[in-house]
Amino acid sequence: MCSVYTDLDAEMLIAAAALHDIGKIVELKTTMTGEADYTIDGRLFGHTPIGIQMIEKAAEELGVKCERIRLLEHCIAAHHGKAEYGAITVPATAEAQALNILDTLDAKMYQFEDAYRSVDCGMLSGKIFALDNTTIYRPCDEKELEKYFESGEQNAETDGGGTLYEA
Ligand SMILES: [Fe+2]
């Protein structure tokens, strides 16, 4: 991304990408059964302000107080993009905007990966809340397509899912 958009401060974007969710260390705890649950501070504040506090504390301990810390904290404050998604503010720097786009891309791609695990090839998923209630289609790879057409399933009734077309 930084080699295409050369005005981006690559060092800042990499630092922000590495640290944007650092507050989750405090926001979440792992139960005895290995499941994640929210801590009290996690529920009261969320990982974004907690992360900013952590950066602030680390900078103070290192005796660093500069514009770059402020910009890094802004990236963290804005990484969810909009108030309705938990952002403290909207992105006001190119790096904060780039981080929000990358974080959103990552979250959406995860939803596809997750849905693909439970949807057969050539079929549609149910509505996915995290994708604005979109129904997604799981394409088939070449091997799956061959198997599908060999099986003769293409003539069978489906549950309303997709119709496969030969490439
Ligand atoms: Fe986050």
Strand content: 5-15%
Distance between the termini: 32 Å
Which segments are poorly predicted (pLDDT under 50) over 5 or more consecutive residues? Answer: 156-162
- SSE arrangement, N to C: HHEEHHHHEEH
Radius of gyration: 22 Å
Give me the number of helical elements: 7
Q: Count structural domains.
A: 2
Order of strands side by side in the largest beta sheet?
1-2
**Major pleated sheet:** 2 strands, antiparallel
What structural category characterises the helix and strand content?
mainly alpha
Distinct ligand kinds: fe (ii) ion
General shape: elongated
Question: What keyword list fits this structure?
Answer:
167 residues; mainly alpha; 2 domains; two-stranded antiparallel ribbon; 7 helices; 9% strand; elongated; binds fe (ii) ion
How would you describe this structure to a colleague?
The chain has 167 residues and is mainly alpha-helical. It has two domains: 10-109, no CATH class; 119-155, no CATH class. It contains seven helices and four strands. It has helices at residues 10-19, 24-27, 40-45, 47-61, 67-77, 94-118, 142-151; strands spanning 28-30, 36-38, 124-128, 134-137. A two-stranded antiparallel sheet has the order 1-2. It has a two-stranded antiparallel ribbon with strand order 3-4. Helix 1 (10-19) packs across helix 6 (94-118) and helix 4 (47-61) runs antiparallel to helix 5. The longest helix has 25 residues, at 94-118. Bound molecules: fe (ii) ion. Fe (ii) ion (FE2) binds at residues 20-21, 47, 79-80. Fe (ii) ion is lined by residues 20-21, 47, 79-80.
